[in-house]
Input
Amino acid sequence: MTHEVDPQARLLGIETSCDETAAAVVVGGRQVLSSVVSSQVDLHARFGGVVPEIASRAHVDHLTPVVAQALVEAGVDDGAVDAVAATYGPGLVGSLLVGVSTAKALALVWDVPFVAVNHLEAHLYAALLEDPALELPAVVLLVSGGHTMLVLMEDHGRYRVLGSTLDDAAGEAFDKVARYLGLGYPGGPVIDRISMEGDPAAIAFPRSMIDTGYDFSFSGLKTAVINHVRRHPDVSTADVASSFQEAVVDVLVAKAERAAVEVGAKGMCLGGGVAANSRLRERFLDACTEVGIHGNLASRAMCTDNAAMVAAAGWWRLRSDGPSPLDTGAVPGLGLV
Ligand code: KG4
Ligand code: ZN
Output
């Protein structure tokens, strides 16, 4: 069923599912008026990963000023928004609850609808938000710290998960390998940078399941990296990082390309934090050109967690499902379909 929603409706989006506190104002699911992201990465770095209790407390501290800034930057500081959307899952339960409760409270005070948004669906919308030319059906490669999925977006709200990871998420593999190599947290950006000084063909790491199906597996690759460094303690860290990254990218790109051709996709896009990876972006675009399918690379800021994608997905959800009930709770294990 489709609900009447003003094409010019201004949605406030709120994102607190993990370690980014974010708020944004987006018009009609398309035009971003403001997007504010406050990262907690420094708070968690010394623990080598996100600490849930610290994350939820930091969201409580940061969310009000972040929302205020998003409203001011959008020029709607009088609270004149038409709906409030918030991520309700998947994610850390305490963190999600901060965003969901705040969104409901604002929706009640302003007497506007509350819209519960699936974080994974929001990542799909991040790509669409920046490329109005992207046509559906599209194959989206969603690669983050918590997820690795190949999704067929048939239409708005209609998705088919073609494949997902059987063990570690792609970003998790970057983070674990970086930690083993002593490169710090989060690992993705450091490996991306250091790989530029290394040889991607120096070490032939395994490309797990590259020719079979659409599921992924990265834990064998992580073990192969650890074993190689143990056996060759003097190996160049840049070569290890670069060869590891190349193995991940080879598998991700090969599967996305094959899926897009097999389903007859009109578009291909990348989403999630790992989509910020320079080598993945370069190889993904090459693959799109090779198969003649319109490819889209969302900006790095749009790939990582943000609230503009939540507000955009929220507009489409409001249109398809109407407002969400105010007793909607956080759903940490929420799936895409
Ligand atoms: O989507 P995201 O911001 O948070 C969630 O996991 O939902 O993704 C964070 C992940 C981390 O694992 C981080 O290491 C990875 O994305 N990442 C990267 C890069 N930038 C962030 N991985 C590879 N290359 C990058 N440039
Ligand atoms: Zn995410």
About this structure: The mean pLDDT is 94. The chain has eleven helices and ten strands. The beta strands are 10-15, 20-27, 31-39, 83-89, 114-118, 138-143, 148-155, 158-164, 267-271, 294-297.
